[in-house]
TrEMBL record:
Renumbered residue ranges of the record's region Disordered: 1-27
A Gene Ontology cellular-component term: nucleus
Gene Ontology annotations of biological process type: double-strand break repair involved in meiotic recombination; nucleotide-excision repair
Protein name: FANCJ protein
Basic and acidic residues bias spans: 12-27
UniProt xrefs under Pfam families: DEAD_2
Matching InterPro entries: DinG/Rad3-like, Helic_SF1/SF2_ATP-bd_DinG/Rad3, Helicase-like_DEXD_c2, P-loop_NTPase, RAD3-like_helicase_DEAD
Keywords: ATP-binding, Hydrolase, Nucleotide-binding
Listed GO MF terms: ATP binding; DNA binding; DNA helicase activity; hydrolase activity, acting on acid anhydrides, in phosphorus-containing anhydrides
Organism: Cepphus grylle
Domain Helicase ATP-binding: residue ranges: 1-232
Top-level taxon: Eukaryota
Extent of the signal sequence: none
Underlying gene: Brip1
Length: 236
């Protein structure tokens, strides 16, 4: 029977519908599914796009979804190893009075690919190609790849973009009625396990316990913090 627990079966449609439509002769629209091609690593995506270039389908509109670790071109954020996601969000929200110049240039990348497609000059590309073009046009490759998903026929991404419901929601991926291909699917179990797992170090636990001690000792939401402190104590 259908999977009722998974969020992909809810059929939620976003304003940016990730499905394509083509008009029939009578004016109605028929749903044309996208192909979501999931791989274990970003390196494998590079290998697949390289092979795609050699086929007759090289001109098919595509995009590659990946993390900011691979696509961020902001000189400050990209050089920060620890918290690129947090720094990016802070820039987008303008918390410190600064915004991201590259984010505001996203349309330059998407328009570039649209022009290529219109003139039948579209060719399969890799993450490095998008990042290189982004640096040239001063446009964010991370958000441009997401914009290109709207008109793409093939979407390449790591497994967890398809398996993890939180990532699917944040990336506005709707898998209902779409075609999903999982390369080397025997790795799915490990990827699914990682998606619902989280690792912490002992030093992180001790630091958390100290902060919770401070909260409890200063009568700050004791009922909430005392159980958390007990968990940290038992783990350490």
């Amino acid at each position: 029977g259908p999977c009722t627990e998974c969020s992909c079966s809810s059929g939620k449609e976003t304003d940016k519908n990730t499905g394509n439509t083509k008009k029939k002769e009578n004016g109605d629209q028929s749903f044309v599914p996208k192909i979501f091609f999931g791989t274990r690593t970003h390196k494998q995506i590079s290998q697949i796009t390289r092979e795609l270039k050699r086929t007759a389908y090289s001109s098919v509109p595509m995009t590659i979804l990946s993390s900011r670790d691979y696509t961020c071109i902001h000189p400050v954020v990209s050089n920060n190893v620890g918290n690129r996601n947090e720094m990016c969000v802070e820039l987008l929200e303008g918390k410190h009075g600064k915004s991201c110049l590259y984010y505001h240039g996203v349309h330059k990348l998407s328009e570039h690919h649209a022009v290529q497609s219109a003139h039948r000059m579209y060719h399969a590309w890799d993450i490095e190609d998008l990042v290189s073009l982004g640096k040239k046009l001063h446009a964010c490759a991370y958000f441009a790849a997401r914009e290109l998903m709207v008109g793409a026929d093939i979407v390449f991404c790591p497994y967890n973009y398809l398996l993890d419901p939180q990532i699917r929601e944040s990336m506005e991926i709707n898998l209902k009625g779409q075609v999903v291909i999982l390369d080397e699917a025997h790795n799915i179990e490990d990827c699914a396990r990682e998606s619902v797992s989280y690792g912490v170090t002992e030093s992180q636990l001790r630091a958390t316990r100290e902060e919770l001690d401070f909260m409890v000792n200063n009568n700050i939401r004791q009922k909430d913090h005392e159980p958390l402190r007990a968990v940290c104590c038992s783990l350490t």
